Amino acid sequence: MSWTDYLKILPEVKKPEKKLGFNEKLKWTVIVLFLYFLLSVIPLYGLDPNYVSQFEALSVLLAAKLGSLISLGIGPIVSGSIILQLLSGAGVLNLDTQSKEGREKYQLIQKAVSIGFIIFMNTMYVLSGAIPPAQGSIINILVLILQLIFGGLLLMLFDEICSKWGFGSGISLFIAAGVSQQVFVTALSPLINDATGYFVGYMPLIFQLLFEGQPALIVWPLISIIATVGVFMLVVFAQSIKVNIPLTMGRVRGYNIKWPIKFFYTSNIPVIFTASLIAMIQMAGMFLFNAGFPLLGTFAGQQPISGLAYWLQFPSIQDLWVQGFFNFIPQLIVYPLFMILGSIGFSLLWVQVGGQDPASVATQIYDSGLSIPGFRRDKRILERVLARYINPLTVLGAATVGILAVIADLFSALSRGTGILLTVMIIYGIYENISRTGMDDASPVVKKMFGAL
User: Going residue by residue through the chain (453 aa), what tens digit of pLDDT does each one get?
Assistant: First the structure.
């Protein structure tokens, strides 16, 4: 009995026995999204009432709601995936992910690692004081830890439900939901900041400033809105770029199809992992500093003021204008390089682990009985032709996503720029997923929306 067989006792969401229709997938996606928002508003019992939320900017990227059952969001799940990919890329985890058995073992190990990180990271957060208990008793600390672990495990199962019964990845859905909520509030909130007397939402703020005769003050809110719209349009355009490889069925004359290879070949996965890694570094830096080991930087309260954690704090264009360009030289060098090179690295790892490399795709095409017109039907020939496109696009697409993330962080303030970039890519991916799904049982309004009529 293999050691991976013991992992099969872990909780698992069964795959549907038959192909799900549009309405069924939509139902489960909405249910998962509702449950996610429900977890985000359930406060932690026994939390210190004087608790001050930390890492607010990073919590958006991790789909976290600090002070609730999902205070760490998808952080532990993504952290486990990052560690597993690094081990796989280094050859420590010797699994053939190109085979069905190898992929199943990898998924089992990934779930076990995710559960381990959920337990470890939530426990460390409470013990380190990042999520402080109201009382220092062992029972209070234990209750707080168990609540966080319970919320993390539920989030992992919601992700699995969404991936098997709904549209796409639950992790991506949670990120998009959190960022969309923040963008909506930041852009349209009618609440007034008691300290300043101005609207919180940028759109009401612009009209308020114009009405009060202060047009010069609308520059930065207006830049944020324009930048957000610009990022949206740019990403949608880039998402539509693809290379179509013609294929034919040798035994069926006249049967021709096109195999699309997208410019963003690995989609938003590299940026999610890179952004999560940055979040992990900054969180770990603060914990180490509080423990007396400033290996990743020093902190003043919650803000890094030196070291790698500080260099990975990217400034906005308003910061550069107000405080001066030369005050941010380390950040302007380290953060873009980290984001771009990190995206490329995770993209290369994801292609191998996810079975998207030229050899795996060539096997898939060959087993389907397809071949490239003008070439002999040979798996090796298919692999060489696919490698001409897949290998460059894996690197170039990931680098472009990294550059777009840097630009979005620089110009956008409706939410964290990387979060807006990810949300646009996620929503576009969900749109494509829905468009490919049979919509025979969908309402006429939905069919018209997706161009099915």
Answer: 566 666 667 777 788 878 777 788 888 888 999 999 999 889 888 887 776 555 666 677 778 888 888 888 888 888 888 777 777 766 667 766 666 677 777 778 888 888 998 998 888 888 877 787 888 788 888 999 999 999 999 999 998 898 888 887 888 888 888 888 888 888 888 888 877 788 888 888 888 888 888 887 888 888 888 888 888 888 888 888 888 888 877 665 556 778 888 888 888 788 888 887 887 788 788 778 877 888 888 877 667 888 888 888 888 888 888 888 888 898 999 999 999 999 999 898 888 777 788 888 888 888 777 778 777 777 888 888 888 888 999 999 999 988 888 888 887 666 777 778 788 888 887 877 777 665 555 566 555 555 544
Distance of CA 453 to the CA centre of its chain: 32
Architecture of domain 211-439: Orthogonal Bundle (1.10)
Q: Which two tokens stand for residue 121?
A: 């990271």
Both structure tokens of 202: 């940028």
- Give the Cβ contact number of residue 359 at 10 Å: 17
Query: Is the CATH number of domain 19-166 3.30.70.60?
Result: no
Range list for CATH 1.10.3370.10 in the chain? 19-166, 211-439
Residues 6 or more apart in contact with residue 50 via CB below 8 angstroms: none
Q: Which residues of 19-56 are buried (b: 16+ CB within 10 A; e: fewer)?
A: ebebeebbebbeebbeebeebbeeebebbbeebeebbe
Q: What is the pTM of this model?
A: 0.78
